[in-house]
Design a protein that fits this description.
Elements lengths: L8 H9 L7 H33 L3 H24 L7 H29 L4 H25 L6
Length: about 160
C-alpha cells in the first residue's frame, strides 16, 4: 500500500514524539501496524462469534458471518478511536455513524466473499473467512477508517 504524499496527523504525532525516527512516514507504518493489531483483536471476537454460532446453534456460516462482523466492528471502533488512530477527541457519534457505514459495507464484502469462497467454491468456511477478511481489511477497512471515519479535522 503506497504511503500518502503528505504525512498524516498520526505521522506528525509519532515524529514529534520520537524525532529520532527521522521520517514522518514512519508514523503511517506505525498506524498501519496498530490497525493490523486492532484488526487481529476484532477478528478474534468476530471469528469466535461466527464459529460459536455455527457449531453451537447450527446457524449457517453465511448467516453467522454478519453477526460475528457486528461484534468485531464494535471492538474495532473502540480500538480505532482510542488507540489506532488516536481520534478520541471530537464528537464520537459522528465517528460512529461514519464507522457504521464503513463497517456495514465491510460486512457485506465479507459476506459476499464467504458466499463465493465457501458457498460456491467449497473452501472450508473458516479458511474462506480468514482469506476474505484479510483482503477486506487491507483494501477497504484501513483506507476508509483512516481517510473517512477517523480523519483529521482541518481548521
Amino acid at each position: 500500500m503506497p504511503l500518502p504524499a503528505t504525512p498524516s496527523a498520526d505521522a506528525r504525532d509519532d515524529f514529534a514524539a520520537n524525532p529520532a525516527a527521522g521520517d514522518p512516514a514512519v508514523g503511517t507504518w506505525r498506524t498501519l501496524g496498530r490497525h493490523q493489531l486492532g484488526a487481529i483483536a476484532a477478528t478474534a471476537v468476530d471469528f469466535a462469534t461466527m464459529i460459536a454460532l455455527v457449531e453451537l446453534t447450527g446457524l449457517s456460516p453465511e448467516a453467522a458471518t454478519p453477526l460475528g462482523a457486528l461484534l468485531g466492528a464494535v471492538t474495532n471502533f473502540s480500538l480505532g478511536r482510542a488507540w489506532i488512530f488516536r481520534r478520541h477527541t471530537g464528537h464520537w457519534a459522528a465517528q460512529a455513524s461514519r464507522y457504521a457505514f464503513v463497517s456495514a459495507a465491510s460486512a457485506g464484502w465479507n459476506t459476499l466473499g464467504e458466499q463465493l469462497m465457501h458457498g460456491m467454491g467449497h473452501v472450508q468456511y473458516v479458511a474462506a473467512r480468514a482469506m476474505v477478511s484479510l483482503v477486506v481489511s487491507l483494501l477497504w477497512n484501513f483506507p476508509m477508517q483512516r481517510a473517512f471515519v477517523f480523519r483529521e479535522r482541518r481548521a
